[in-house]
């Protein structure tokens, strides 16, 4: 059972997505995001690139799974489009695209992925679902406090990231069955909650609670 505490801004999110996440994004992260708009956009762009790269990697590794190939091909195209859109917004706002050290979030989840198949694939899909669900939740939490242009853009991303979450979970359940997937989700949920609620020194799109300055 999850411990997600819903907020008013969560009304636009699918119930299944909220029940999937083990906790809400801390308010301190929201405040940090609003205080660091350039960092938010730069790391958001990097996240979109990484999401496309992950989808492409799955396509190359699991060529014998046609459902996965179709879903990941669609997802990669959409993530690259989002990347282009974020970069365009950055250019409009005079934000230079620079390299940032990745947050510990994605790697912290992948550390618990099984080494052997077929469990490895199932775990990778579950991790993908967590990344997409958390992204969706954070977009929704930010929307009411952003300017009109960025709010409109993030509102469109809530819909697409929600579909991506559903795609990842749907594939995992197709290949392993709902009961087995639920057991692994519970395992990863504990790690995801720790990554979201523990302190992080550097602000990133998927970072945890900002360290006190």
Automatic annotation (TrEMBL):
It comes from the Bacteria. Signal peptide: none annotated. Pfam families: MiaE (PF06175). This is tRNA-(Ms[2]io[6]A)-hydroxylase. It comes from Salinicola endophyticus.
